[in-house]
């Protein structure tokens, strides 16, 4: 009987010992994994898909952010918001999306592709009519686009470029949409509209006020009447599928902060957060 009790005691001690060792190994493994994750986190490449009109301001902010966050690299993909939306829907690996209109962001939201808790209205803008700097055309308002002296008008492609959608809304409300369409040359994004106008390949173009501010080769003729089109809003959100979710949120927080505000306002954007 004593032998049996002794054996049971030895077995109990052995089991307790094995359990203790096992727990220690689990803890060590967990800590090792956390440390490994931290090590991996030292080098992060964030992919940001952003409306083409944001290019100049975002490039400046990239320099600021990377200098303050060593190990983080920002890679941009600038294009028309509709094209960017389509790329994301087709599986493009993107961490953060900034659209030039709510329509494209809402499209991704409806498909469950954005982290809704991160969705924010980041910026506002205005739309302007520009002509080449040396233009001699006698125009002073949007309605003058119907004049026979204007042959070519550059617009963003309405199906994928928000500035084109906003422009058509203005033309429709002014009662000149069909007349302008007959002269329209459609561009893949607002930067292309600006380039065509700068080079005098067109007589006039419709761009954002922020784009006009970046060029000394065009002059602003008129600002679109704010009561003739939907308010311009740039929403931003982190993608659910982001492999760098927390880092993407941190960058978005930076874009909502005072340093970014100063940069955005310098380029003519209205800061909304």
Structural description of this entry:
The protein is of the alpha/beta class and 273 residues long. The chain folds into 3 domains: 40 residues; 120 residues, Periplasmic binding protein-like II (D-Maltodextrin-Binding Protein, domain 2, 3-Layer(aba) Sandwich); 102 residues, D-Maltodextrin-Binding Protein, domain 2, CATH 3.40.190. Helices cover 45% and strands 21% of the residues. The chain is built from 10 helices and 11 strands. The radius of gyration is 28 Å and the shape is elongated. InterPro entries: ModA, ModA/WtpA, YvgL-like_PBP2. Keywords: Metal-binding, Molybdenum, Signal. GO terms for molecular function: metal ion binding; molybdate ion binding; tungstate binding.
Which descriptors apply to this entry?
3 domains, alpha/beta, metal-binding, D-Maltodextrin-Binding Protein, domain 2, ModA/WtpA, 273 residues, molybdate ion binding, YvgL-like_PBP2, single chain, six-stranded mixed β-sheet, 11 strands, 21% strand
List the helices and strands and how they pair.
Blueprint: H1 2-40, E1 44-51, H2 55-68, E2 72-79, H3 81-89, E3 96-98, H4 102-110, E4 120-124, E5 127-132, E6 153-156, H5 162-174, H6 177-181, E7 184-187, H7 190-198, E8 204-208, H8 209-213, E9 218-223, E10 233-238, H9 245-255, H10 258-266, E11 270-271
Parallel strand pairs: 1-2, 1-3, 6-7, 6-8
Antiparallel strand pairs: 3-10, 4-10, 4-11, 5-8, 5-9
